[in-house]
Design goal:
This protein is mainly α. About 60% of the residues lie in helices and about 5% in strands. The protein has a 3-stranded antiparallel beta sheet.
Amino acid sequence: MAKQAVRFSKKKRTKYRFQKLKMCKKCQRYSVLKDDTCPKCGTTFVGMEALVKSIFKSRLLTEAIWILIIVSIGIVAAPTVRTLYYSLISGLVFVVSYVVLTSIFIKSEYFIHLKKLLRVDLKKIAIGIQYDSELAKKDVKEDRLAPAYEKLREIGDFLYSDQMKIRRVMVLNDISLRSDMELELETLIPSSYDKDFVKYALEVLKINRTLITKKCIGYFINHRDAIVIDFGINSLLTVAGMTLRMKLYILEFSEFIEEFLDYFPKERVLRLCSILHANPEMEWGSLEEKTNRLVAMKYHYDPDFKRFSVGDEVVSHV
Ligand SMILES: [Zn+2]
């Protein structure tokens, strides 16, 4: 099947995850998707922050009314003019201190209300996300892959299950990937071997090598046998080559690199040599020795390797 050419819209970034949550007051349903209106009834969603603020405001109003009632009772029930003044003054002091204290603790009060709302509505939120997920499933069924992926991407910020990751990966595998797309890799790594994930990882790394991370290399090493069976040894060789992206990765995965060193293209060996020689103070272990030997054997007469000037001394030992 031909891959679908699509364009993703930019992912909405928020400081806190809860800021993506919103609610349709009419359906009493939460959603994490980007839509501004409820797909069920068309009502505009209310953001979590606005929801908390409205709860907070109504609590403040209730408290203010209570203070007013107590002060009024004090005034009405005052037997003398003096006690009436006392009631008025104490009422005033109380209101001022209430306003001052509330404004000092307004931020923590806000978070207390937010936490309470999240706790009370946890089940409702889960049901809302489940509904969002059904909408994404419908998009996939009807071959609308871009909106399906965008929905799953938002839901993925709240659900970290393998099932959710694989659903995203399977949609991505039917899309023709481009380097200008906002693609992820590390966040999609499942907890066990998954052929669809490896297929996606190999594809996405072809267009964006910078997505390779320690966790990703570790995944390829841990599941190497299954990967070789499904994708051939070259897939591991590619990943080993990409491990040279960072000095720290080379140190961490030096054994893995050593295994494939003899099969690296010249450009990868050159890169490895430059990193090793630029950092002579680091403990490279047997990787350095093996690299030097390879250069002496294979690239002895290559001018590109002259600057490392290791050829002669190593050759003399071989
Ligand atoms: Zn609604």
